Amino acid sequence: MEKVNEELERQRAKRKRVARMKRFIVSTVLVFMLLTITVMSILCYQVISLKKELRELSKQVYVATDVEDSNEMVDDSVLDDVYKVDDIDNIAEEGDIPKVYLTFDDGPSSNTAKILDILDDYNIKATFFVCGKDLELYSADYKRIVEDGHTIGMHSYSHNFGDIYSSGEAFAADYTKIHDLILNTTGVDTKYYRFPGGSSNRVSSTSMSTFINYLNEQNAVYFDWNVASGDATSQAFTSEQLIDNVMKDVVKYKTSVVLLHDASNKNATVEALPGLIEALQERGAMILPITDETTIIQHVNVVQ
User: Fold this and answer.
1) Torsions phi, psi of 44, nearest 5?
2) What is the DSSP letter of 166?
3) Distance separating alpha carbons of residues 19 and 297, to the nearest angstrom
4) Spatial distance between the Cα atoms of 294 and 296, rounded to a whole number of angstroms
5) Residue 112 and residue 144: Cα distance in Å, rounded?
6) Residue 113 CA to chain centroid, in angstroms?
7) Are 194 and 208 in contact (CB under 8 A)?
8) Cβ-contact 274, 232 below 8 angstroms
9) pLDDT band at 70 (very low <50, low <70, confident <90, very high)
10) How many of the other CB atoms lie within 10 Å of CB of 241?
11) DSSP structural state of residue 253
């Protein structure tokens, strides 16, 4: 009888051990599952947050982060997929002498004097679409652009897409500020304008026709571009690549308006400029500043 009782005790003890092991295994699995679900939830939350941040960054890609030139364009790479100029009359034919207009957006900057020096060395005149900058720092640059015989135009005062494209009134106020800054600083009553992002930008929440009609009312004319150097993007093109980007397109047109940038972070543009001028001259191109006689290149044209 005693042996039977001992055997029963051993069996009970064994069952208890097995039960404890089962509880331990089940608890471990539950804890592991709970941890897995928690980690996955955190990761999903982080992914969603990152996607939101990326969307915000993509909206802000047009807004400058450079301290010195806080209004300059940082990345216009999406514009390459936006703008398209279909002008049959401007397609180059054999024997045509190409007219090339080098245009510099976003200045003045710490690179303006360097650009002007290079242009002066080659006796080339260009066009500068400027923004509103601190006159204590850049007054001399605005003046030198004009004094050196270049064309000065408007590229908005703030270059803040969210502000200037928020309404017709906001655009008009910004236009007046940059127009008056240029007039009061250089004496030039300029009527040439370039939209930040171009007239084909997809950032403006207001129809671009509103702003185009306003320019028409001011007897102002806006110029887009049909050749892009690529220096507007955040991609680090070398100076040689910038030259190639321009040269592969200027051969297509009778009149080429080339998009370049005058900004403190566009050193490759400065480095490329001598080689670009020489390459254009070897092609027999006439390098000119924009005037009233220039063929107007526009992505969007609205007749009032």
Assistant:
1) -60, -40
2) S
3) 84
4) 6
5) 9
6) 23
7) no
8) no
9) very low
10) 16
11) B
| Assigned token pair, 122 | 């080659």
Bridge partner list, 287 = 100
* One-letter amino acid of 122: Y
Q: Name the H helices within 124-166.
A: 135-147, 161-164
Q: Is 145 exposed, middle or buried (0-12, 13-18, 19+ CB in 10 A)?
A: buried
Going by C-beta distance under 8 Å and a sequence separation of 6 or more, which residues neighbour residue 52?
A: none
Long-range contacts of range 24-28, CB-CB < 8 Å, 24 or more positions apart?
A: none
Query: What pLDDT score does 85 carry?
Result: 59
- In total, the chain counts a number of residues equal to 304
What is the chain's mean pLDDT, rounded? 85
Element (H, E) at 14: helix 2-59
Place of tokens 């400058």: 64
Quote the tokens at residue 53.
């941040």
Q: Is 154 exposed, middle or buried (0-12, 13-18, 19+ CB in 10 A)?
A: buried
Token pair, residue 247, equals 């040269």
Going by pLDDT thresholds of 50, 70 and 90, the confidence category of residue 164 is very high
Distances (CA, A) of 94 to 51, 97, 121, 285: 50, 9, 31, 13
Residue tagged 């408007």 (tokens): 154
**Nearest alpha carbon to residue 154 among 71, 49, 39:** 71
